[in-house]
Amino acid sequence: MNQGPNRLFDEFAKLMTDAAGAAQGLKREAETAFRAQAERFLADMDLVKRDEFDAAKEMAANARAENDSLKKQIEALEARIAALEGKK
């Protein structure tokens, strides 16, 4: 008779342990599915990665600096041409 209630409690404890394990498994599955969906969503948005953005930003800054330099050279050449044409 002493074994009856203890066995019932043991079975109940085992059932609760199994339920907790199943709940953790479902949680992991849900997290994995959510991450996969979020990654697909971000991939579909065609976002630029940070390192690619920084590289493009640096290229734009270099191009801007080169354009400024070339603009000054053109202005100097135009002034020189104007001076040569004025001497004629």
Number of strands: 0
Helix content: over 70%
What number of structural domains do the residues give?
Answer: 2
Number of helices: 2
C-alpha end-to-end distance: 127 Å
Shape: rod-shaped
Order of helices and strands: HH
Strand content: under 5%
Determine the structural class based on helices, strands and strand pairing. mainly alpha
> What can be said about the biggest beta sheet?
none
Please state the average pLDDT score.
Answer: 90
- Rg result: 36 Å
**Regions with little confidence, pLDDT below 50 for 5+ residues:** none
Protein topology:
Blueprint: H1 3-44, H2 50-87
Describe the protein's architecture and organization.
With 88 residues, the protein is mostly helical. The chain is built from two helices and no strands. The longest helix is centred in the N-terminal third of the chain and has 42 residues. The mean pLDDT is 90.
What would the keywords be for this entry?
88 residues; mainly alpha; 2 domains; 0% strand; rod-shaped
